[in-house]
Amino acid sequence: MFAPLYVEIAKLNRSLALALAGLAPGLIAVFVFFNALRMRQALPWEMWMMQGAGVWAFFMLPMSVTALTALIAHMEHGPKSWDHLRALPVPRWRIYAAKAFCVLGLVAIMSAAVPTLIWAVLEAATVIKPAAGPTGMIDWAEVAALLGRMYLAALLLIAIQLWVALRFSSFVPALATGIGGTFFAVVATSAKKGVFLPWQMPVNMLATEAWRWQTALALGCGGGLLVLMLMLISLSRRETT
User: Fold this and answer.
1) Using CA atoms, how far apart are residues 132 and 22, in angstroms rounded to an integer?
2) What are the Cα distances from residue 129, in Å, to 46, 105, 121?
3) Per residue in 34-67, pLDDT tens?
């Protein structure tokens, strides 16, 4: 398992995936920075962290996963190297599992970067405009728990996007799936049935009703692990991608 994983990690150094991993949380940080500078009165750290987490879960996370899975899949689709990979003396499922591990790892890194960058830019904004400095203390345990739940709830979304990206050699199906899913998640934000939409499950971690975030977390995490296993089985049996 370690050989395919090492190869996939090495491939990331030559791809745009790493740039995307920094760009996505960086854009949220830029938004928070300029938003802080325009504030006339200070807000608590909790509100800033919740705002950043909301932007991440609501829009940036699903769109980042869409782009990330497409980029990682295109590393093989572009040069048409699937036949070479399948000819290697390695079980096929390990090749796909290594790609899934890289995607999950990058999304985890981006999730951790969101609150870290928000803290950094708010500290910088405080130097420029002391009156905008956040009040109170940061409960890092609570922030980590919230971003962790968002990550687990996003597993189903990640699994679906990765399966589509690996299954089809064209960018179109993966992009259409991600854009379409994000669109319906945005327009159905307040709908009760939206809790069952994979692209809306991460943002449901901010819901005040316990049943909403608990349902979304269970479906997102459990369904994601199931779909990942089905993806490995299905793709391993295919002769062409």
Assistant:
1) 26
2) 19, 36, 12
3) 999 988 888 999 999 999 999 999 999 999 999 9
